[in-house]
């Protein structure tokens, strides 16, 4: 695979990608259990951490607020590109949630501030045929969701975590947070959100990860 395939001008950590891809092929980390969030806070096969691990492809793009743009396009009535002032002028909301990474760490009680997905959907107005969403980060990372999963009330685009501006390593200035799915579905340094009629698997989904990634069903690998 091309080392520069993210197109971000950096080199992705190819060894790490290959290791995670091999785990997906071998079904590593699977316990075969399922659970229901109402009954058990920690999903099957996860362990609780107190710190906040950093996971990415090894490229942490520097996106100053002045250079930030977020584009909403595809099957929408109102395609829009927001700059930082435009984004922060949208109604701001808070969310409190747990996050679960496919590499088996979970972190409870994360406070996020940003813009609710419902606000973005009101602005862009997806067309009736838009059932899927594709995300792209400034590092070239991509992932996919159904519109239904993206539109969940707990999902948001966050610029702050624990009362502070999101650090560059965690995806600042802006990241997606879709906490009911494994955290690889939550694009850091988000740049573009495209609404589609068909599913478009992203970086990890084409490397053996599950298409949906529900931690309660242990949907680690596809
Ligand atoms: N743009 C981008 N977003 C990304 C990734 C990435 O490599 N690039 N990694 C994903 C993965 S695999 C995880 S587990 C989470 C990690 O977020 P964190 O570093 O804030 O813990 O970001 C997700 N979002
Ligand atoms: Mo991850």
Give keywords.
single chain, 222 residues, alpha+beta, Sulfite Oxidase, Chain A, domain 2, six-stranded mixed sheet, five-stranded mixed sheet, 11 strands, globular, disordered N terminus, binds the ligand Nc1nc2c(c(=O)[nH]1)N[C@H]1C(S)=C(S)[C@@H](COP(=O)(O)O)O[C@H]1N2, binds molybdenum atom
Architecture overview:
This protein has 222 residues and is α+β, with helices and mostly antiparallel strands. The protein has a single domain, classed as Sulfite Oxidase, Chain A, domain 2 (Alpha-Beta Complex), CATH 3.90.420.10. It is built from four helices and eleven strands; from the N terminus they run αβββαββαββαββββ. It has helices at 14-26, 84-88, 117-124, 147-150, and strands spanning 47-48, 69-74, 80-83, 93-100, 105-116, 132-137, 142-146, 156-161, 164-165, 175-177, 190-196. The strands form two sheets. Strands 1, 4, 5, 8, 9 and 10 form a six-stranded mixed sheet that branches. It has a five-stranded mixed sheet with strand order 3-2-11-6-7. The protein starts with 13 loop residues before the first helix and ends in a 26-residue tail after the last strand. Molybdenum atom is lined by residues 55, 101-103, 183-184. Residues 53-57, 101, 137, 139, 141, 170-171, 183-184, 186-189 line the site of the ligand Nc1nc2c(c(=O)[nH]1)N[C@H]1C(S)=C(S)[C@@H](COP(=O)(O)O)O[C@H]1N2.
Question: How far from one another are the termini?
Answer: 21 Å
The largest sheet, given as strand count, sense and whether it forms a barrel, is: 6 strands, mixed
Report the count of strand segments. 11
Count of helical regions: 4
Provide the β-strand percentage band: 25-35%
* Rg measurement, Å: 17 Å
* Total domains: 1
N-to-C series of helices and strands: HEEEHEEHEEHEEEE
Q: Can you tell me the residue ranges where pLDDT is under 50 for at least 5 consecutive residues?
A: 1-5
**CATH level-3 fold name:** Sulfite Oxidase, Chain A, domain 2
Which architecture does the CATH hierarchy give at level 2? Alpha-Beta Complex
């Amino acid at each position: 695979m091309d080392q520069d395939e993210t197109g971000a001008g950096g080199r992705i950590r190819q060894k790490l990608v290959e290791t995670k891809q091999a785990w997906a092929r071998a079904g590593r980390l699977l316990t075969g259990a399922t659970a229901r969030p109402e009954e058990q806070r920690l999903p099957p096969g996860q362990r609780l951490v107190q710190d906040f691990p950093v996971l990415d492809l090894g490229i942490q793009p520097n996106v100053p607020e002045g250079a930030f743009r977020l584009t909403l396009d595809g099957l929408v009535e109102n395609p829009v590109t927001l700059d930082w002032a435009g984004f922060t002028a949208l109604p701001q909301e808070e969310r409190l949630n747990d996050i679960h990474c496919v590499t088996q760490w979970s972190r409870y009680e994360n406070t996020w501030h940003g813009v609710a997905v419902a606000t973005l959907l009101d602005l862009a107005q997806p067309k009736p045929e838009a059932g899927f969403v594709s995300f792209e980060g400034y590092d070239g990372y991509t992932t996919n969701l159904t519109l239904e999963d993206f539109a969940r009330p707990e999902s948001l685009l966050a610029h702050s975590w624990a009362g502070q501006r999101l650090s560059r390593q965690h995806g600042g200035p802006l990241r997606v947070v879709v906490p009911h799915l494994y955290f690889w579905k939550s694009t850091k340094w988000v740049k573009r959100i495209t609404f589609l009629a068909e599913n478009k698997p992203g970086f990890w989904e084409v490397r053996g990860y599950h298409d949906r990634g529900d931690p309660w069903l242990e949907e680690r690998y596809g």
